[in-house]
Design goal:
Layout: E1 2-3, E2 11-12, E3 15-17, H1 19-36, E4 39-45, H2 53-63, E5 68-73, H3 79-85, H4 103-114
Parallel strand pairs: 4-5
Antiparallel strand pairs: 1-3, 2-3
């Protein structure tokens, strides 16, 4: 979906972005999971992914559903990323060197409380 050798004119740094491939592979997977799963894991919601309007629409659909989403998101401030971070259904957890070993257990504990 992104490649240094890509001829795409859509670029992020040295990578060419293949939006058609991204949309064909990723969006249907998320949409199917939205109808069949209790929770979704999306790794990652970053600048490259946000070139896709369909991806942004799909992530917003997930965030505004009754599904639980665990995801990684671009850390720095960016208008498109900030919109997602400001969604009232989002709970942000920063992973640091100090907490990185305990975060998976904390997430698992939270999921046990929510998912039955």
């Amino acid at each position: 979906m992104a490649d240094i050798d890509s001829i795409s004119e859509l670029r992020l740094g040295r990578y060419g972005i293949e939006l058609e491939d991204f949309g064909r592979l990723v969006i249907p997977t998320i949409e199917k999971a939205l109808t069949t799963k209790k929770f979704l894991i999306i790794d990652e919601i970053g600048l490259m992914q946000l070139f896709s309007e369909r991806f942004k629409e799909t992530v917003n659909k997930v965030l505004n559903s009754d599904k639980i989403i665990i995801g990684t998101i671009f850390f720095n401030s960016h208008p498109e990323v900030d919109k997602l971070k400001e969604n009232p259904n989002v709970h942000l957890v920063s992973i640091t060197k100090e907490n990185r070993d305990t975060i998976p257990y904390e997430i698992a504990d939270e999921l046990r409380k929510i998912v039955k």
